[in-house]
Design goal:
- With 536 residues, the chain is α/β, with parallel strands linked by helices.
- Among the domains are: 106 residues, no CATH class; 207 residues, P-loop containing nucleotide triphosphate hydrolases (Rossmann fold, 3-Layer(aba) Sandwich), CATH 3.40.50.300.
- The protein contains 17 helices and 18 strands.
- The strands form 6 sheets. The chain has a 5-stranded parallel sheet. It has a 4-stranded mixed sheet with strand order 11-13-12-16, with helices on both faces.
- β2 and β3 form a beta hairpin.
């Protein structure tokens, strides 16, 4: 077996990228892919075997590769959830909505996700797989999970804890408590009641504060329609092709023991990496989108209807979340206001390109999951501009109660109809253009780039300072005798990482491609790792 020596490591490029079928390591002119947990000892052994090097050298390479690893795009981020078959764009949409929790202004955050599909479609499985890496964070208080939650519970329980940036996961419900809407919209819920104490009734106030993130799975949403205005809604893929993909995946896992064990390890490693990405993503940042006037111009040409008033803020939140999620590749500015530092991220045109397919896919999903009665209602509504429930009932032969409480709310959530609830009789109309956010971005890139540069120049003139700029690749000079510092000393498992037999301080230059780091970190590389990877 050929081993790398110290001289052969000088000037070597080291990087790692996640693909759907494994972690792709690039070391100089070699590249290998391992389908395993790259942060485990087994991962080190496999990497060593594939590269023909010692385990210690494999540990060193892995540590350098993960030192500043960050997914380059949403496809790579989606690959961190191999336990979910298909649903690629829905997963990306869910993740962007989730990361919007970290935006500074609650008005810019999405309120949550509502996943509406039939029973056994895989809603709970999708949520479980995405949230699993985050369990245990914040002393097990990041995720608050319920199969049912009442108004009274929210009023009393949440007054004892802050629910700001907590994930509230409610399974298989049709109607979320009205208090949730108040909490999400106002960031505060105050309850004034009387309770009996020492035989006498006394006035008591309960207060719950903070803006949580709601995750709801439902076969048929009939909850507060105002709640969906700031939530992302989507349906799962219920096609025969998707069913076959799931069955095939389950068949392989059940029939091939070796593959199943390797798949479990690969999935576990992906979960560790995602957990660390979540932890490292900054919180309380501002995001600006300098090229928004270009989008507004496109939308004005399309003559959008009032539905856009609720969809546009969600669209902007997703763009902001993309800029935040991929912050290592965005321009970041620092601003000092009255002695307090504010972090500002400038969104890139790529953030718009990230979001557009997700919005379009969300529309196509709900379009393909319309029920027969929903399709009938939409077809009949084309005959005139405005309808009441009783009028629709006469023309469709569907009961007015079913239209009022199920069919029309479902069509409203999916964006096909607009309901005016101001008068005694609700007025229902077709949305002019359900695909109003289908924006043509051709010939926009150069203009967007100029607007981004102009915005950055104005911010710099106003006193902001650049905190980070992209430098790719980054040249890192590390002293050979400091390689042991790539991990906490008490956790370093391979003595060959630091050469104890030769204490010479020869320079080792590693080119770490496709990453950035803060300037203040360039001289100190202490991985928060166990055995050379992310925390377990």
């Amino acid at each position: 077996m050929n081993h790398y020596n110290r001289d052969s490591m000088i000037g070597v490029e080291v990087s790692v990228r996640l693909e759907h079928d494994g972690w792709l390591f690039k070391v100089g002119d070699k590249q290998v892919k391992i389908f395993n947990d790259p942060l485990s000892e087994d991962g080190d052994r496999e990497l060593a075997d594939r590269l023909g090097i010692s385990i210690g050298e494999a540990w060193k390479i892995k540590s350098l590769a993960f030192q500043n690893y960050w997914p380059r795009d949403l496809k790579e981020l989606r690959a961190m959830f191999p336990g979910i078959v298909g649903e690629d764009l829905n997963i990306q949409l869910f993740l962007l909505a989730l990361f919007s929790m970290k935006l500074r202004d609650p008005q810019n955050r999405l309120w949550g996700v509502i996943i509406e599909s039939s029973n056994s479609a895989g809603k709970s499985h999708l949520v479980k797989e995405i949230l699993e890496p985050l369990r245990g964070l914040e002393d097990n208080q990041l995720i608050l999970e319920f199969t049912r939650v009442s108004n009274a519970y929210i009023e009393r329980k949440f007054q004892s804890i802050s629910v700001d940036r907590k994930i509230l996961y409610i399974q298989e419900v049709e109607n979320a408590p009205s208090q949730l809407h108040l909490l999400l919209s106002e960031g505060k819920l105050i309850l004034a009641i009387t309770e009996k104490e020492d035989g006498k009734f006394k006035p008591i106030e309960y207060e719950a504060s903070g803006t949580p993130f709601l995750v709801v799975t439902t076969p048929n949403w009939r909850g507060n329609q105002n709640l969906i205005h700031r939530c992302v809604t989507f349906s799962l893929d219920e096609t025969a092709e998707q069913t076959y993909r799931i069955v095939r995946h389950q068949t392989i896992l059940a029939s091939d023991f070796i593959y199943r064990e390797r798949f479990k390890a690969f999935k576990a490693g992906c979960g560790k990496v995602f957990r660390e990405l979540w932890r490292k993503t900054p919180t309380d940042v501002e995001v600006i989108i300098p090229f928004l006037p270009l989008i507004e111009e496109k939308l004005r040409i399309q003559d959008p209807d009032t539905k856009l008033r609720r969809d546009y803020p969600k669209f902007l939140s997703l763009i902001m979340a993309s800029a935040l999620l991929f912050y290592p590749f965005r321009t970041i500015l620092k601003q000092n206001v009255d002695g307090r530092e504010k972090t500002i991220i400038i969104a890139d045109f790529q953030d718009l390109l990230n979001v557009l397919p997700l919005v379009e896919n969300s529309f196509q999903q709900v379009l393909s999951n319309l029920t027969e009665k929903e399709r009938l209602v939409l077809e009949k509504m084309k005959e005139q501009d405005f309808w009441t429930y009783s009028e629709l009932s006469k023309i469709t032969k569907i009961s007015s109660s079913l239209l009022r409480h199920k069919i029309v709310p479902s069509l409203e959530m999916k964006g096909f109809v607009i309901v005016d609830r101001e008068g005694k009789s609700h007025r229902i109309e077709l949305a002019k253009n359900p695909e109003s956010l289908n924006i043509d971005v051709s010939n926009m890139h150069e203009k967007a780039l100029n607007m981004i540069n102009e915005a950055m120049a104005m911010l710099l003139l106003s006193g902001c300072q650049i905190a980070k700029s992209e430098i790719s690749p980054i040249q890192v000079s590390i002293q050979e005798n400091k390689l042991g510092n790539l991990a906490f000393q008490q956790n370093a498992k391979y003595p060959s990482v630091s050469d104890e037999n030769n204490q010479e301080s020869s320079s080792l230059t590693i080119w770490h491609t496709g990453t950035k780091m803060k300037e203040e970190d360039e001289d100190s590389y202490y991985l928060s790792v166990t055995g050379g990877g992310y925390p377990t």
